[in-house]
Amino acid sequence: METKIRTEHAEKAGGNNGRSALATPSGLSTLTPAGDQRLNRGPAELIERMQDLQEAHGFLPETLLRDLARELEVAPIEVYRVASFYRAFSLKPKGRHLITLCNGTACHVRGSSALVETLRVQLGIGPRQTSEDGRFTVQTVNCLGACALGPIAVVDGQYHHHVNPAKLRALIRGLDEDGE
Ligand code: FES
Questions:
Q1: 3-state helix, strand, coil in the chain (%, to 5)
Q2: Would you state the pLDDT for residue 167?
Q3: Distance between CA 14 and CA 140 in Å, rounded?
Q4: Distance 101 CA to ligand 1 centre (A)
Q5: Helices (H), the chain
Q6: What atom in ligand 1 is closest to the CA of residue 112?
Q7: What's the confidence (pLDDT) of residue 24?
Q8: Residue-wise pLDDT tens for the chain (180 aa)?
Q9: 151 CA → ligand 1 middle, Å
Q10: Does residue 144 line the site of ligand 1, with CB under 6 A?
Q11: In this predicted structure, what is the pLDDT of residue 52?
């Protein structure tokens, strides 16, 4: 199952903290100003544009969010609300290596908490943190859709199943040996 896939998929799978893919921050459906054709797709257009920015830059730079808010005629606070609602969005640059641990129920009962602790010890960072040297970012999601194979870890877009602390340490060592 260690199949290379796009990180985007993993992010979308857990991108909103396990909520439905259709879930949006409360009040977001009111973003569309009456009669404004540019926003008649409402929240979907805002989110798509933010996804494009995230893909292009690896995170959502503040200046570009302000530009987007101005262009779509949406209050900047609403844009920030969307950015902070979805885990797939990041307001800070991510590390060169992205480690995503599934902490959904099935993975949790199979020991995913021990994986979080393993990274705390090995890298000195917890979920939603980036190492000071900019090499690693750790994030957790609530289900990656492969519960029977858990715990699941996604390292730089590559899925790993039945992960335990020893296997995770070996994966991190492999990244260390890359020297990146
Ligand atoms: S709970 Fe981890 S893949 Fe579903």
A1: 45, 10, 40
A2: 97
A3: 8
A4: 9
A5: 7-13, 43-57, 62-72, 76-85, 105-109, 112-123, 165-178
A6: 2
A7: 54
A8: 443 333 333 344 344 443 333 345 554 544 444 444 444 567 788 999 999 998 898 889 999 999 999 999 999 999 999 998 887 788 888 899 999 999 999 999 999 999 999 999 999 999 989 999 999 999 999 999 999 999 999 999 999 999 999 999 999 999 876 655
A9: 7
A10: yes
A11: 94
Query: Ligand 1 pocket, 125 CB below 6 A?
Result: no
Distance 84 CA to ligand 1 centre (A): 23
Residue with the nearest Cα to atom 1 of ligand 1? 104
Looking up tokens 């199952």 gives 1
Is 106's C-beta closer than 6 angstroms to any atom of ligand 1?
A: yes
pLDDT at 26: 53
Give the nearest ligand 1 atom to 144 CA.
3
Q: State how far the Cα of 160 lies from the Cα of 171, in Å rounded to an integer.
A: 9
Q: Tell me yes or no: is domain 97-178 CATH 3.40.30.10.
A: yes
Residue 28 one-letter amino acid: L
Domain ranges in the chain? 18-85, 97-178
Q: Count H helices, E strands: the chain?
A: 7, 5
Cα(118) to centroid of ligand 1, in Å? 19
| 108 in Cβ contact with 115 (< 8 Å) | no
Do 122 and 155 touch, CB atoms closer than 8 A? no
